């Protein structure tokens, strides 16, 4: 599911009343505060800061650093997909929440890379929807 995060927002996502998906999001509170709220609810949050990322290479470099991807991450699209569908390196949790900052500017600077990244996010969310541990991706509006 892609679209705007429903009115129930983060609380609804964390309590299961909002289906996991890839959502465009206008944060009413800071991203770090949202990450803390998710962690308090038993979810594993991660913040991907794309401010200044302008191409595939800088996007993948940010993913490696910000998401603390494992050493076997190969800095390519397939490796990113593998990492996001095998989150054993993130540990056990009630759910996975990826908060993406700077999405709009990245999408403008690198539309093809952003499209591929969005597809990988959607495929990863779909992968996790088949089990007991959901994953959601929030693409934060640029401030």
From TrEMBL:
<dbReference type="InterPro" id="IPR000468">
    <property type="entry name" value="Barstar"/>
</dbReference>
<comment type="similarity">
    <text>Belongs to the barstar family.</text>
</comment>
<protein>
    <recommendedName>
        <fullName>Barstar (barnase inhibitor) domain-containing protein</fullName>
    </recommendedName>
</protein>
<dbReference type="Pfam" id="PF01337">
    <property type="entry name" value="Barstar"/>
</dbReference>
<dbReference type="InterPro" id="IPR035905">
    <property type="entry name" value="Barstar-like_sf"/>
</dbReference>
<feature type="domain" description="Barstar (barnase inhibitor)">
    <location>
        <begin position="45"/>
        <end position="139"/>
    </location>
</feature>
